[in-house]
Design brief:
This protein has 153 residues and is of the alpha+beta class. It has helices at residues 4-12, 55-65, 96-109, 129-139, 141-152, and strands spanning 17-23, 29-33, 38-39, 45-49, 70-75, 81-92, 115-126. The longest helix has 14 residues, at 96-109.
């Protein structure tokens, strides 16, 4: 298992694909690309939510209220992949921190934002295919069983 500091550079790379997975109060999962996602100076995951009416925003807000987890999937340009599980820690919709982000996005991109979401990472798992193949080789139960049967015959 990795930690957030080990993959901070990958997450903060603008070329890395970043996807946030949430679950609504009705239990229906929802995923959305969030390219603004990054690791802040405190080691927390942060992203900008653009629309107040988005399903992601509703779900992450419910996750904050009811202490539910969210997932973040990242895929680097080199095909390194990690899944991060965490809990929303705060959602800024006003105040100095929010205003600084709002002003920066407005100046750089020309549009409004709804909120700044902060997620406290709890676990980081390498989900890259080469890592999964290594793990699979260790546990190849079906093939171990076939090997044993062929040796017995």
């Amino acid at each position: 298992m990795a930690n957030i500091d080990e993959i901070k550079q990958i997450i903060n790379d603008p070329k890395t694909v970043k996807i946030v997975g949430t679950v609504g109060v009705d239990g229906v999962p929802h995923t959305a690309v969030k390219q603004s996602l990054h690791v802040n100076d405190e080691g927390k995951i942060e992203y900008i939510e653009l629309f107040e009416s988005s399903e992601s925003y509703r779900n992450v807000t419910a996750s904050l209220w009811y202490n539910k987890k969210v997932s973040v999937l990242i895929l680097s340009p080199d095909k390194e992949s990690y899944e991060i599980i965490g809990e929303p820690e705060r959602i800024l919709i006003a105040g100095r921190e929010y205003e600084a982000v709002y002003t920066k996005v407005l100046e750089e991109k020309g549009y409004d934002i709804a909120a700044v979401v902060t997620i406290a990472p709890e676990s980081v798992e390498n989900s890259s295919p080469k890592e999964k193949f290594k793990d699979q080789e260790k546990t190849r139960l079906f093939y171990k069983h076939l090997d044993r049967l062929s040796k017995e015959s």
